[in-house]
Amino acid sequence: MMLEVRKLSAGYGRVQVLWDIDLSVGEREIVALVGPNGAGKTTLLRTLSGVIRMRGGTAEFRGRSLGDRSIEQIVDLGIAHVPEGRRLFAGLTVRANLLLGGWRTKNTDLDRVIELFPPLEPRLEQVAGSLSGGEQQMCAIARGLMSQPELMMIDELSLGLAPLIVDEILARLPDIAAAGTSVLLVEQDVDAALSVAERAYVLETGQVTLSGKAGVLLADKRIQESYLGIA
Ligand SMILES: Nc1ncnc2c1ncn2[C@@H]1O[C@H](COP(=O)(O)OP(=O)(O)OP(=O)(O)O)[C@@H](O)[C@H]1O
Ligand SMILES: [Mg+2]
Fold first, then answer.
1. pLDDT tens profile 134-170
2. What secondary structure letter does DSSP report for 83?
3. 38 CB within 6 A, ligand 1
4. Distance between the two ends of the chain, CA-based, in angstroms?
5. What are the coiled-coil residue ranges (predicted)?
6. Does ligand 1 come within 6 angstroms of the Cβ of 45?
7. How many helices (H) and strands (E) are present in the chain, helices listed first?
8. Percentage of the chain modeled with pLDDT above 90
9. Which of 42, 49, 86 to mutate to test ligand 1, by most ligand atoms within 8 A of the CB atom?
């Protein structure tokens, strides 16, 4: 697999948050990571993108260890991270945000991301802070894609967005994956995440408690009771 995580542990200060995480993402694959608040989903993405150090275990991307690399080196390996809360440069235009996303890889071609997210085209000269929530998420994903990553990790895609917009954005993920960018999707909306992903992992209090094909998990009684509100 493209990304292979084995027995990874991580945390903050004296607090260990992640325990023995095993996870993988394949070529052109969409993998969902779901679980309750505080489970450690964001911490896992932050560890893989080099924001925090792993404390044990290994993570390899195309056979290369991520453990001792900086955030920039991990971007250069082909991993993009769309963080929780989107973190756009609110005072800069959409165009400038997108170009900054392509800066390290010298990609200035906006056509491809505009084609994926047409609502951004009339907004290119507008400052990102004035976009709607859905447009901001499109801009954040588009900015991540500008580095032409082979893996994109998206944290809380649906946060604060109306269901219709969430569906519109999720519907682009298969195209993104088919074009060569695998997606590791952290999502509170388990139903939506499992509907678009091929495989999924359930993370609870820092451990993977369930994993498998998304369709199988959707039909799993524990998932239905805990995450889908089906009694
Ligand atoms: N900077 C930090 N310093 C100390 N503890 C932290 C820090 N960030 C997160 N934590 C703790 O790590 C644990 C996991 O948090 P994390 O943000 O990874 O969870 P999450 O699964 O992303 O939750 P959510 O669904 O609410 O986004 C929580 O107990 C949290 O309090
Ligand atoms: Mg989180």
1. 999 999 999 999 999 999 999 999 988 999 999 999 9
2. -
3. yes
4. 36
5. none
6. no
7. 10, 10
8. 89
9. 42
Dist CA 21 CA 77 (whole Å): 21
In the Cβ-directed half-sphere of 119, how many Cα atoms lie within 13 Å? 15
Tokens for 203, please give them.
């993370």
Closest to 182 (Cα-Cα) out of 27, 3, 1: 27
Distance of CA 174 to the CA centre of its chain: 14
* Domains of the chain by start residue, with CATH: 3-227 (3.40.50.300)
Averaged pLDDT, 89-93: 96
The closest-lying atom of ligand 1 relative to the alpha carbon of residue 46 is 18
What integer is the mean pLDDT of 19-37?
Answer: 97
Can you tell me the distance from the alpha carbon of 146 to that of 129, in angstroms, rounded to the nearest whole number? Answer: 19
CA distances to 144, 151, 178, 184 from 67, in Å: 21, 17, 28, 18
Residue with tokens 């901001």: 136
The atom number, within ligand 1, closest to the CA of 40 reads 18
Rounded CA-CA distance 49/71 in Å is 6
